[in-house]
Amino acid sequence: MLKISLKGCDSFVKDADYQKYVQKALAAYDVLDKETGAGNDFLGWKTLPDGTPESLINDFESVRDSWKALGVNLVVVIGIGGSYLGARCAIEALDHQFLPKKDSPRVVFAGNNLSEEYLAELMDLAQLSNVACIVISKSGTTTEPAVAFRIVKEHIEERYGKKEAAVRIVAITDAVKGALKTLSTQEGYRSFIVPDNVGGRFSVLSPVGLLPICVAGYDIRALLKGAASAKSQVSVRSAENPAVQYAAMRNLQYFELGKKVEVLVTYNPRLMFLGEWWKQLFGESEGKDGKGIYPASANFTTDLHSIGQFIQDGDRCLFETVVNIEKSRRSVTIGSDSQNLDQLNYLAGQHVEHCNAMAALGTKLAHIDGGVPQIEISVEQVDEFCIGELFYFFEASCGISAYLLGVNPFNQPGVEAYKKNMFALLRKPGYEAQTEEILKRLQ
Ligand code: PA5
């Protein structure tokens, strides 16, 4: 079961202030629960953990099995933002960090940048592989995935022919609208729907996340069970609800202590993309109307030798949220050395994870002494169930926290600004007037 500890904030926070923010968080909880807030037509994510039909899971498995039968060993997942970060987070957390997989295809991601070198090198890999593709875009019109898909589609069609391409390509998009919907209907791709009432960054438990995670060989039933377990934990109107506590404490940090930056910390490199997914969830949900905590992430102990200096000693603008993993699933102990030239014999017989845990405790005390409050979220281990717990816990917390902050968690008006300029510079039809204006500004 997921746990939260706020003890690392005790020396910074008055209990009366905390109680005040718990009341505010409970009011925000009501808005989310009763669905009375801004963006309440985007609350479909709340029912995904226990509302995903078995038939849909069977359909994901049938895609996985049909690709296995074709010998597919590389699946390119094309999408950006909420259309890829959740799947990448789960797959990178669960994959072996060094060895190639034996029984499942390698899953790689594209369409999340516009780097020519990235795509060229991806195609180098595709040439050597047996390829399939999942293309994901809720709107069906986003430029980055559309560019990548055009290139991957051409490769698949040239190599396997148009008929087989329809088996090797699966689209996940809107039920009725968007260019990707039109294309997949015309080309006869198998397709799955991103529900209308589920926004990109809340979509990991929909086909957007579930299909890639399933195809990568992981147990999506366990993932959904973990999410359902977190859902039952955070669906109670109580000061003990961990999502209420998290939302209360992070808003208290922001409004009362002037903490403008939250660093999500992990001590396990396989959770690097949990940080990326979490940053998008909170950054796009809360960073608007001139408000919001800037979400940053760090992987310790690695980053203790880089931004650790800033966290310990720089501008006191930040607080930390540490995601603790209680149990390592692998065991490596430190041996004894007769010469002890590296002076490590005092650790002989210890598990490496024991050193990691002591580093975490030592860092916690040092950072608290340095003026950095710490929230801790703990899950048992890195597996599908616990990742599901983290997904739902953070989604629910984000909804409560954003309502407490006073913003609509489910829109992202700021994302449009760069697109307009880019389209004008790329001379997209319809943007002619803006092109002239922008070119003048760039002179
Ligand atoms: O959270 C969001 O809504 C966004 O990050 C989208 O996921 C992202 O912009 C991609 O959009 P689309 O799936 O429409 O291509």
N- and C-termini, Cα separation: 58 Å
Q: What's the order of the H and E elements? A: EHHHEHEHEHEHEHHHEHEHEHEHHH
Principal-axes geometry comes out as globular
The biggest beta sheet is recorded as:
5 strands, mixed
Q: Helix/strand-derived class?
A: alpha/beta
Q: What's the pLDDT, averaged over the residues? A: 96
What small molecules does this complex bind? 5-phosphoarabinonic acid
Q: Roughly what percent helix?
A: 40-55%
Strand order of the largest sheet: 1-10-9-7-8
Radius of gyration computed on alpha carbons: 23 Å
Tally of helical runs: 16
pLDDT < 50 runs, ≥5 residues: none
Strand content: 5-15%
How many strand segments?
Answer: 10
Write the layout of secondary structure elements.
Layout: E1 3-5, H1 15-34, H2 48-51, H3 54-70, E2 74-78, H4 85-94, E3 106-110, H5 116-127, E4 131-137, H6 143-168, E5 169-173, H7 179-187, E6 190-193, H8 207-215, H9 220-234, H10 242-255, E7 261-266, H11 272-286, E8 294-299, H12 308-313, E9 318-325, H13 352-369, E10 374-379, H14 384-405, H15 416-425, H16 432-442
Parallel strand pairs: 2-3, 2-4, 4-5, 5-6, 7-8, 7-9, 9-10
Antiparallel strand pairs: 1-10
Helix pairs in contact: 1-10, 1-14, 3-8, 4-8, 4-11, 9-14, 10-14, 11-14, 15-16
